[in-house]
Amino acid sequence: MLPNKVNIIEVGARDGLQNEKSVTLADKVRLIDRLSLSGLSHIEAGSFVSPKWVPQMADSAQVFASIQQQADIVYSALTPNLAGLERAIASGVKQVAIFGSASESFSQKNINCSISESLERFESVIALAKQHNIAVRGYLSCTMVCPYEGIIEPKQTASIAKQLFAMGCYEISLGDTVGKGTPNRVSAMLEELLTQLPKEALAMHFHDTYGQALANIYQGLLMGISTIDSAVAGLGGCPYAKGASGNVATEDVLYLCDNLGIETGVDLEAINLAGWEICRALDKQPVSKVALAMGDCRV
């Protein structure tokens, strides 16, 4: 049964732009401020990671200092470790996310440690966040398919998601990092997860590399998952997963939900405007099929 309402978490300004070779502070701020006028309730605005590994996010503190934050919107940031969290706290960030993997190989490639080591690291991050009344969200990558190991068993994904939830993550975002998931794999994964976690604690973060993201999201909606991560214009990818293209486009998700009669609270035309604007700045076209069909509606 489809939910009546979904929560869209916009990740384009972080997960999208971290994969672009060149983007200015002004362009980031303009994008986030434009997105803030669309009805979104949660925008991931930056990442406090080492500039050595993700130089595109080196100015996240300046981003948080420059955007016009709306009182009814969560502006979150990715914080992989204590150093990152401390920088986020200094920047006034009210919600953060940590990121782990359901694949041992991907964990080593992405954050240079084993899954068990990553969970140990997260304990101190979550503890400090709690001291500052900062909510923590957990990203879990390669939940169905890994670029190095192939198929990931649902029990493996469920085990790690359960540990993240028990540690204090209020929500686990399930990543199809290489976009090789299909509805049957989504169904198998969620059937296992829903025996151990409430549906309200799960979110979908599906990439569209093989054109399956919307089909996978529809399957998740049918199973009661009502939080969807998406990126304006379909921006993004993963620097540690060869061939991984962008996140599912926010425009495409909104079109799907609107036509299914599912409330999003987000204005598709406003998102389309923001998407074309950032794509002009990046000298590229949106990946979103809906954005291309609607066309550039610049103001």
UniProtKB/TrEMBL annotation:
<dbReference type="GO" id="GO:0016829">
    <property type="term" value="F:lyase activity"/>
</dbReference>
<dbReference type="InterPro" id="IPR013785">
    <property type="entry name" value="Aldolase_TIM"/>
</dbReference>
<feature type="domain" description="Pyruvate carboxyltransferase">
    <location>
        <begin position="6"/>
        <end position="272"/>
    </location>
</feature>
<protein>
    <submittedName>
        <fullName>Hydroxymethylglutaryl-CoA lyase</fullName>
    </submittedName>
</protein>
<keyword id="KW-0479">Metal-binding</keyword>
<comment type="similarity">
    <text>Belongs to the HMG-CoA lyase family.</text>
</comment>
<keyword id="KW-0456">Lyase</keyword>
<dbReference type="InterPro" id="IPR043594">
    <property type="entry name" value="HMGL"/>
</dbReference>
<dbReference type="Pfam" id="PF00682">
    <property type="entry name" value="HMGL-like"/>
</dbReference>
<dbReference type="InterPro" id="IPR000891">
    <property type="entry name" value="PYR_CT"/>
</dbReference>
